[in-house]
Write a structure and sequence with these properties.
Length: 126
């Protein structure tokens, strides 16, 4: 119900539209290997829920994606966007300790947090 949250996070879960299939192992594929967050990472296997059909109009830069059998589409797993004078790093991985303990997920979170904290965004959104 909070429109500003949707702009801030880029994509949001909408009841009755968004969803996921059963927890499974899927391949997380690096879309932008040159971004500071994903630099040095390679595609990896993830045992997790794969969120699908997240909603939002704000342009996002996808870093990581996976194919969802539930939505029958590639879904963004991690992406970035500018917000105001800052940067947003958004990821959908790590629904429990097993999922978050994947070394690649840990690296993604560390790199994403550092990138978001580094400084001002190159462009602004309201």
């Amino acid at each position: 119900e909070w429109d500003e949250f949707r702009r801030l996070c880029g994509r949001a879960w909408v009841m009755g539209v968004s969803g996921h299939g059963p927890r499974s192992v899927f391949e997380a594929k690096i879309v932008d290997p040159n971004h500071p967050i994903t630099r040095g990472l390679t595609d990896f296997q993830q045992d997790d829920e794969l969120y699908a059909k997240l909603q939002g109009e704000t342009p996002v830069h996808v870093l990581l994606e996976a194919y969802s059998d539930w939505s029958e589409a590639n879904e963004p797993l991690a992406f970035v966007l500018p917000y105001g004078k800052g940067r947003v790093f958004h990821h959908t991985l790590g629904h429990d300790p097993k999922a978050i303990n994947n070394p690649s997920v840990k690296t993604l979170i560390i790199h994403g947090t550092a990138w978001a904290a580094e400084g001002e965004a190159e462009t602004s959104t309201p």
